[in-house]
Amino acid sequence: MAKPKTLGYLAERLRATLDGDPDYQITGVAGLEEARPGDVSFLASPKYEFLIDSCEASALVVPKGYSGSFTGAKLHVDDPYTAFCHVIVEFRGEANRRSPGRHPTSVIDPDAQVGENLSAGPYVVVEAGAVLGDDVVLWPGVFVGRRAKVGSGSLLYPGVQILNDCEIGDRNIVHGGAVIGSDGFGYVSSAEGHEKIPHVGNVTIGDDVEIGANVTIDRGTLGSTRIGNGVKIDNLVHVAHNVVVGDHSLLVAQVGISGSSTLGDWVTVGGQAGMAGHLQVGNHSRIAARAGLTKSIPADTTVSGFPAIPHEESKRVMASWRRLPDLLTKIRDLEKRLRDLEHDLEDAKVGKK
């Protein structure tokens, strides 16, 4: 359990303006509805002001200029959400770290290079030629293959596999069940069947990357599948062979990226979106949830739908779809009226004869 921290200390760490007693001891961190006396919470948006009257927190991180109804201590900051993230780290930042040491059931090859303060849990396996940086934490069941590299300060949760020759940078977080460096899905088809294409490349991952649970990142056929610095990947994402994901991009749950596609920097791909192979996505582009990208797109583009088209156009298409039942009714009515007119016209022609 974290040690209590004074409001004065928190104000200094957050570069906040404190309205309250700097010596008051804060013992925990919680949301507005869960907070109890001694806790610090936060208010990032006025729409949650209605929760303040029932909030029991002793202190609140609030926007500068806040003048709401909260009567406890206030830490005024430019960005309450970001500041509160730092507060969480202050109180809970070490919750998922493990004390340095090797469990007796862990197996670390004598030819592996191991940095200082390694924490290796039960049934961890580190093979020959692997390189582990300082302060690496390997939870139970982690596998690090031959010649693989894990950067300093990285945290690998239970069941993570870093396969042969793959490299992850410093301060990475890899959640349970992720597989880095599995073979790509590549075959040569003929009348005799499907012959496997060998995948002899690797995966390289930059610094400060977070990879969600059960993510799979395939190794390159030749060369590398590359994930840039600061990339955040949600659960159940698949990145195929030789894909390049630029710095600080976001891949939300169940995204699938086909082989040899390249995403620029700061790209956002929404949940369940899919991309065909060999595409180029420009910097700062956005692919909406459940979109299907079949063509390359330039920088600063937002697309949605299937096949993915510019978002404003896609919204008009979706609006038209919602009107289709009424339009079909109108068309049937017009068809009936046209048939009636044609029948009347034929009757008129017969009458003239």
From TrEMBL:
Tell me the GO BP annotations in alphabetical order.
Answer: lipid A biosynthetic process
The record describes its quaternary structure and partners as: Homotrimer.
Keywords attached to this Swiss-Prot or TrEMBL record, sorted alphabetically, are: Acyltransferase, Coiled coil, Lipid A biosynthesis, Lipid biosynthesis, Lipid metabolism, Repeat, Transferase
Functional pathway: Bacterial outer membrane biogenesis; LPS lipid A biosynthesis
Functionally, this protein is described as follows:
Catalyzes the N-acylation of UDP-3-O-acylglucosamine using 3-hydroxyacyl-ACP as the acyl donor. Is involved in the biosynthesis of lipid A, a phosphorylated glycolipid that anchors the lipopolysaccharide to the outer membrane of the cell.
Can you name a GO cellular component term? membrane
UniProt cross-references to PROSITE patterns, sorted A to Z: HEXAPEP_TRANSFERASES (PS00101)
- Claim: Lipid metabolism is one of the keywords in the record: yes
Q: Taxonomic lineage per UniProt?
A: Bacteria, Candidatus Eiseniibacteriota
The gene is lpxD
Q: Where is the active site?
A: 241
Which Pfam families does the protein's record reference?
Hexapep (PF00132), LpxD (PF04613)
The scientific name of the source species is Eiseniibacteriota bacterium
Family the entry assigns: Belongs to the transferase hexapeptide repeat family. LpxD subfamily.
Protein name in UniProt:
UDP-3-O-acylglucosamine N-acyltransferase
**Reaction(s) catalysed by this chain's protein:** a UDP-3-O-[(3R)-3-hydroxyacyl]-alpha-D-glucosamine + a (3R)-hydroxyacyl-[ACP] = a UDP-2-N,3-O-bis[(3R)-3-hydroxyacyl]-alpha-D-glucosamine + holo-[ACP] + H(+)
A GO molecular function annotation here is:
UDP-3-O-[(3R)-3-hydroxyacyl]-glucosamine N-acyltransferase activity
